[in-house]
Amino acid sequence: MKATKLMKTSPSVISFAAIGGKKENEGPLGDYFDKINDDPYLSTDSFEKGESQLQKQAVLHALDKAALSPEDIDVLFGGDLLNQCVGTTYGVRAFEMPFLGIYGACSTMAEGLLLASLFVDNDLAKKAMAVTSSHFCTAERQYRFPLNYGGQRTPTSQWTATASGSLVVAPSDKPPYIRGCTIGKIVDLGVSDANNMGAAMAPAAFSTISTFFTDTGMTPSDFDYIVTGDLGKVGSRILCELFERENINIRDNHKDCGMMLYDFDEQDIHAGGSGCGCAGSVLCGYFLPKLRAGEIKNILFAATGALMSPTVNQQGESIPSISHLVWLSGEKDMKGAN
Amino acid sequence: MKATKLMKTSPSVISFAAIGGKKENEGPLGDYFDKINDDPYLSTDSFEKGESQLQKQAVLHALDKAALSPEDIDVLFGGDLLNQCVGTTYGVRAFEMPFLGIYGACSTMAEGLLLASLFVDNDLAKKAMAVTSSHFCTAERQYRFPLNYGGQRTPTSQWTATASGSLVVAPSDKPPYIRGCTIGKIVDLGVSDANNMGAAMAPAAFSTISTFFTDTGMTPSDFDYIVTGDLGKVGSRILCELFERENINIRDNHKDCGMMLYDFDEQDIHAGGSGCGCAGSVLCGYFLPKLRAGEIKNILFAATGALMSPTVNQQGESIPSISHLVWLSGEKDMKGAN
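^ Those are the sequences you sent over. The predicted structure of the assembly is below.
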């Protein structure tokens, strides 16, 4: 069976919300956030509790914008980068929604959107939700060094976004419509540098996007944008080169959320943004509104995740990566799909 | 929409495998494992890599027993207790199956089976797989103390199983059939003692099992066993009492995998077994074969998970828990269900 599933009913993303932090507000997409938190603690007493607040805000905003309450949601898919996904579980516990925890590292928003779409398309849920987040301060101390240590960052390292995205999928006659999705495979080409996630993840994006093109017969020119999650400068260059080797040009319409979120000249972010909240907030804050408004017609959203942990990386392991893909469109039907 | 989904086609669990360690072999279920590993490193150089081997073995045994190869699998759902679920990602990366990572702590086998069943029932996969694991040595050093420290364990603490379970769901005319499932909600009644997970998780099991009874109109007497994952002595007592308050007796047919896996008198396990691999291996090693053989006709499998991390627990947070449920049967249709 093909890893690409085309939707039978093309459900819509009926609501979406993006939450950010101070640095995200200062970047080029600052105006696209629904809410900005200048305080990295979000009025709690720890960064981890702060990250949970990001998810809580994202869910509440997405519900509010569609005049929904938590009881209207049949299933919520959520996850994040924190050990045991506590950003999510503590962020959403008060909502008492049926909940399925997912873990795809920075591909989590694509995995959640994919599962929410399949649930609604097969009438397993009338309204399904997805949420994810990341937080610079929680990620630094969990994956790298305590902030107080003031460690140097390598040129290939990326900046974890303090951000969250959330969305609601349901049947509707308003775009954006979900037209299809591709479930990714784990790809590991042996990159073991945890400060160069982009290089580790690019082959996974290549694998999944290629599978989508093969399964559907569509080509890059069928899309306004081919959006990756957080490959950053290094990973994006590798992805475009991998496609060029196959004589496929995605350079003209490739966008990477990690390269859009911050200003490279002004914000000292090295190779770009990263984290579950990077792809999540750029999808929910920037791309989904433009699809709804008709400013763009078709995108592939292929977020990528590096499925390692500091423990096994320190034991010398390379970094297995994955990418899940969702095809979002302004139209319910479009020529080119089979 | 109800949180309980009844299957339209009642797919089967066509293959299953249980892998264990030395202590699991010495317990009352020792003979039910497909493979035992006396070496806690499983011939690797770290406990974490050893845990990945547990999952690899479980997947390979489940495939072999049905004469399947990895290419036959349309989607694999997997997760475990390790930070970033690396037991799974490193265990299954070589198989190159479409993969969706899940996180439900010790409820992971129920979540994976639930998703695999829904995917097959809705023709999103012809063959879907689920896998999970836990390992005493990786869990101790990640959640509690380094083994070398020789810390004392409290009377309510549980023993993390060194075990893995894996299964394949597909359409078939051979039992066990999956008849339905209930997606759980996060429940947090304020228990914050990380050495008393059973007490934290029992209310989640109560919530999900009650929801199933309400949604279907079925009662405990419709089932040979109501199986929980790893509530242990303390959590099992609380679960039975919570039902008794509602005038429902589950005491006569309640079984807890955490109370079945080890010998309380001989094996010094305090309140019982725990870990994703506990429910996973007891389901795949003990209950599924008995359902296939017709020795038992109907069970509810309701694994529970504690969705905390040491970090937030040390910050004073209580323990949110969840339970997902799957109804397994020797018959495709049965009176009593609506």
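Residues 177-329 of chain B form a domain with the Peroxisomal Thiolase; Chain A, domain 1 fold (CATH 3.40.47.40). The mean pLDDT of chain B is 96.

Shout if you want it in another format.
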